[in-house]
Amino acid sequence: MAPDGKGLAPQESPDRESPDRESPDWAAAPEGATRPRVVEARSLSLTFETADGPVYALSDVDLDVERGDFVSFIGPSGCGKTTMLRVIADLEQPSEGRITVNGVSPHEARLNRDYGYVFQAPALYPWRNIERNVALPLEIMGVPAAERREKVRSHLELVNLAGFEKKFPWQLSGGMQQRVSIARALCFEPNLLLMDEPFGALDEIVRDHLNEQLLRLWAKTGKTVIFVTHSIPEAVFLSNRIVVMSPRPGRIIDVIETDFPTDRDLDFRETADFLEVAHRVREGLRAGHSYDD
Amino acid sequence: MTTDVLSAPAGSSGLWARLVAGRALPIAVVSAVVIVLWYLGAIWLNTPLQIDAFERQGVAWSRADLVRATLAQERPLLPAPHQILAEMKKTIIDTRITSKRSLVHHSWVTLSSTLLGFAIGTALGVLLATGIVHLRTLDKSLMPWVISSQTIPILAIAPMIVVVLGAIGLKGLVPKAIISTYLCFFPVTIGMVKGLRSPDPLQLDLMRTYCASGWQTFWKLRWPSSMPFLFASLKVAIAISLVGAIVGELPTGAQAGLGARLLAGSYYGQTIQIWSALITAAILAACMVALVGVGERLVLRRMGLRR
User: Fold this and answer.
1) In chain A, positions 3-42, which contact chain B (CB-CB < 8 Å)?
2) Taking Cα atoms as reference points, which of A35, A22, A3, A29 lies closest to residue A240?
3) Are residues B256 and B112 in the same domain?
4) Is residue B95 a part of any domain in this protein?
5) 3-class SS at A64?
6) Taking CB atoms and an 8 Å limit, are A1 and B217 in contact across chains?
7) pTM of the model
8) With bands split at pLDDT 50, 70 and 90, how would you rate the model's confidence at B252?
9) Mean pLDDT comparison of A48-62, A119-133, A277-291, highest-scoring range
10) Rounded Cα–Cα distance for residues B79 and B101 (Å)
11) Do residues A36 and A167 share a domain?
12) Contacts of B212 in chain A (CB under 8 A)
């Protein structure tokens, strides 16, 4: 009954899946971290074997994400930023290197339901109204009905959609639908939120508005967020760490830490601090040949 | 008072507007054209026999006599619509339904095996599709059989099914239902394979991120996604299920059923009887397809998929 043949069959630790792979050393604890590491990746590589030869989606990637971080992956298409997110979510298996999520393998983290995932499209189920769409993960996890109702209510309130419980997805705008999908990803209270270009399909005005809302949500909930985008202003505005990536092979060019005030609003994007960081991101992309044809 | 004055003309012009804009007018026009062509065809086809008859009787006849007579023959080559309607009125309304001559009785016999075959066929189709979607080996091994099963003419295999099932003691309703099943599982299988595969990769990935079991993915995602496909298939399935039941009645020399009516009519050259059985079967099929359509609307509206 697995969705794609390999899907839900128990996937054991990666070393058992492919014997030729380097044996990952899960015992190695994160050393010397001030805050607990949510994601720790070491020399991570992922190669897709295609008919046209191998595609190096990720090459030798090291990454640390600490609790409470808002990390953005930015880069042109094909730089592996979505692949990286999918590896963290255990939706792709790395070919080499090791990675832990909340101190355990991504597979175990998925079994623990440690993260909520927001896709490029809202991926709401059209036959469920808003309330039941948000309740979907709770139903699957066997949360009792009364608790489910309460969690749905509070999370719809969190994304400013109280009162829309009985509407169907097609009755909502694209931006509202994506907010529903954020509520759905948060309602079972994972400590990690993975967002894959969640606002990419929206117009700029809606996107700006949602950026502001997301920033407040992050400040309010203290979740760790990993955010994939190809918009420089979006990455700089939202994140406290920006991971600049580059394609062929997908790799990390630069990691930029920022220390902006958490109550920043859209006007902040016209300040010198903001423009300086945006410039550094652009330099990084240029150095990684992201602007080449 | 004022509302009455205002609404009356609006109401009548509204009706006319709806007739013109809606489907009623085109349907009426097409039906009228078909009936006119039918009458012309009946006159044309029945004329040679009628001239022979006049000449044998040695009566003088005018053109008007000829036309009148061609539309009132006892065993015409092509019966006129009013003759079929008269026969249908006689055998459906005027005859008691317990009588062997009642078309309602015969329709019920055929309908019961149609519905039984449809139920079994739908269940079988859904089951096969579920297997094919979830098990790679079934996809490879079963699908060619499912498709090749439909390349065998039903007229060739129907007597075999009747004989084989008769040998193991199954007679009457069941063999006919099995023939219906043989025809109607196919569209359901094909439609449901497509329907159960219709969720997009994001919707499936979402289920993976929740660690949903295969069972949960099926009931919460694949099954609801397949509903529009299921109903499209059911409309085809119910119609050919009726065809299967009628075909199943032909080789058995059945005593009752629309197929038996067709067979008896053709033995005795009762063309009017044949045509009225045919028209009854067509009306029956249309009603059943319409009923499936009503079910579809109710289910999809409940699911919020009808806007």
Assistant:
1) 3-5, 7-8
2) A35
3) yes
4) no
5) strand
6) yes
7) 0.79
8) low
9) A119-133
10) 20
11) no
12) 8, 140
